[in-house]
Write a structure and sequence with these properties.
The chain is an alpha/beta fold. The chain contains 16 helices and 8 strands. Helix 14 links the parallel strand 6 and strand 7.
C-alpha cells in the first residue's frame, strides 16, 4: 500500500511539501516551497521561527515567507490566517503554544485579537494568569469569555454531580419528580389495595407513589479550602465550579475559602464561579495551617462536616502546625479529604511525605476528577 502511494507522483509531491513546511527555511535550497503553500508557510513561520531567535516577545515584523518580501503578518492577521488554513483542533494547539511557549501576550491584550480566539480551558487559564495586563475594555471581553467557558464546564459537570447525589432512590419516600424511573410499584399496590375492583379484576389506584431521590433534609456541611498558588490553577477552576454546584443542593451547606499566606472567604459568591475566579490572585506563598485553622472555626457540627483541602501540600511555614490542624479536625469527628489535584490531568505534583502523614491520621488523600469528588461526598451523606 505504502509503495503504491510512493509510486504516485502526486503523493510524492505531497510528502515533499509537508517536509518543506515542517523544516521551514532550512530546507529551502533542497526543497523549494510550492507556491500553493505560501500562506501555510507564512503562518507557520510567524509562530515557529521564534525557536531560532533570542527575542521571545511580540514580533510584528515577520515577513510572509512564501512571498519572500511580500505582505507583512501581524498578530491579528496571523490568527485569521491559521483559522482559515487549519482545523479547529490545530488552531487551538497553535493558540496555546503562542501563549504558553512563545509568550505572545498580544493575543490577550488586543481586543480585536482576543475576540477571535477559541474559548476553551487553555484560554481561560491564560486569561486568569495575565488578566492584570489587560486594559479595561479587554477585561470586559475576557470576563465574557471566562463566563462562556465556565458555563460550559458547569453544565457538563452538573449532570454528573446530580447523578452522584440523586442516582440512588430512597424507598418509601414521596417525591415531586413523577417520572417512570422513580415509580414505587410496591408502595402504590400496598396503598391502593382498598381500591381493588372485583368487576375489573384489578386495582384501580387513586394515587401513584414515587420514590424520592434524596432526603428532604440532610444537613451536611462542606468546608472547601483552596490553595491559590500558581501550580494549582486547574484545581482552583474546577473547585470553584464544583462549589457552586454543591451550593445548589438542598441538603448541603457550603463554605468556600481561598488562601495563600492570607485567607479569603468567598462563600457569599458561590452563585458566581466566574466572579470567584476573577478574584483569585495566583502565586505567592502558602500558609496551609492558617487556612485549616479558619476552616476549623466554620465547623459547628463535626459529625456532619466534610473539610476538603485542595492543595499540593507544599507549606511555606512549619509543617507540624499543618499536621496538628489536620489532626484536630479528624479527632473532632469531621471528615477530612485532601486533594493534591482536582482536575483531569492525572499527574499532580505534591508533597508526598506530607500526604502520607495526613493520610496516616485518617484523612482521605487522593488526586481525583470532579465527578469522583461528587461520588465520594455522595457516599458519605447517603
Amino acid at each position: 500500500m505504502e509503495d503504491r502511494m510512493m509510486d504516485n507522483p502526486n503523493n510524492k509531491q505531497e510528502i515533499v511539501n509537508r517536509w518543506r513546511l515542517i523544516l521551514g527555511d532550512f530546507a529551502e535550497n533542497s526543497l523549494p516551497l510550492d507556491p500553493e503553500n505560501t500562506e501555510l508557510d507564512g503562518a507557520l513561520y510567524f509562530l515557529y521561527n521564534r525557536e531560532y531567535t533570542d527575542e521571545q516577545g511580540i514580533r510584528n515584523d515577520f515577513p510572509n515567507r512564501g512571498g519572500r518580501g511580500g505582505s507583512v503578518l501581524t498578530v491579528p492577521g496571523w490568527l485569521r490566517r491559521v483559522k482559515k488554513l487549519f482545523p479547529k483542533k490545530t488552531v487551538e494547539i497553535m493558540q496555546k503554544q503562542a501563549l504558553d511557549k512563545y509568550n505572545l501576550t498580544q493575543l490577550l491584550t488586543d481586543e480585536s485579537v482576543l475576540s477571535q480566539l477559541e474559548p476553551n480551558l487553555g484560554l481561560l487559564k491564560n486569561i486568569l494568569t495575565f488578566r492584570n495586563m489587560m486594559p479595561g475594555p479587554v477585561r470586559k471581553l475576557a470576563y465574557s469569555i471566562v463566563e462562556q467557558v465556565i458555563r460550559d464546564i458547569q453544565k457538563k459537570l452538573e449532570i454528573n454531580v446530580r447523578k452522584a447525589f440523586y442516582g440512588k432512590k430512597l424507598p418509601h419516600t414521596n417525591s415531586s419528580y413523577k417520572i417512570f424511573r422513580n415509580f414505587d410499584f410496591k408502595q402504590t399496590i400496598e396503598k391502593n389495595l382498598k381500591n381493588y375492583s372485583p368487576e375489573h379484576g384489578t386495582i384501580i389506584p387513586d394515587r401513584l407513589y414515587f420514590n424520592q431521590n434524596v432526603r428532604r433534609y440532610n444537613p451536611w456541611h462542606i468546608v472547601i479550602l483552596v490553595d491559590e498558588s500558581g501550580s494549582m490553577l486547574d484545581s482552583v477552576i474546577y473547585t470553584a465550579v464544583m462549589a457552586s454546584i454543591f451550593a445548589k443542593m438542598p441538603f448541603l451547606s457550603v463554605k468556600l475559602v481561598i488562601f495563600d499566606t492570607s485567607v479569603v472567604d468567598l462563600s457569599n459568591y458561590l452563585d458566581d464561579p466566574v466572579g470567584i475566579l476573577m478574584k483569585v490572585q495566583l502565586g505567592g506563598g502558602t500558609d496551609i495551617h492558617k487556612a485549616l485553622e479558619y476552616g476549623k472555626k466554620q465547623i459547628t457540627a463535626p459529625q456532619k462536616t466534610i473539610v476538603v483541602l485542595v492543595s499540593d501540600l507544599y507549606d511555606g511555614t512549619n509543617y507540624s502546625y499543618m499536621f496538628r490542624s489536620c489532626h484536630d479536625i479528624i479527632e473532632a469527628g469531621s471528615k477530612l479529604f485532601v486533594l493534591p489535584a482536582l482536575d483531569y490531568s492525572g499527574t499532580p505534583c505534591y508533597d508526598a511525605r506530607a500526604a502520607r502523614t495526613i493520610a496516616g491520621m485518617g484523612a482521605d488523600v487522593a488526586a481525583i476528577t470532579p465527578e469522583e469528588l461528587a461520588e465520594w461526598i455522595g457516599k458519605i451523606i447517603s
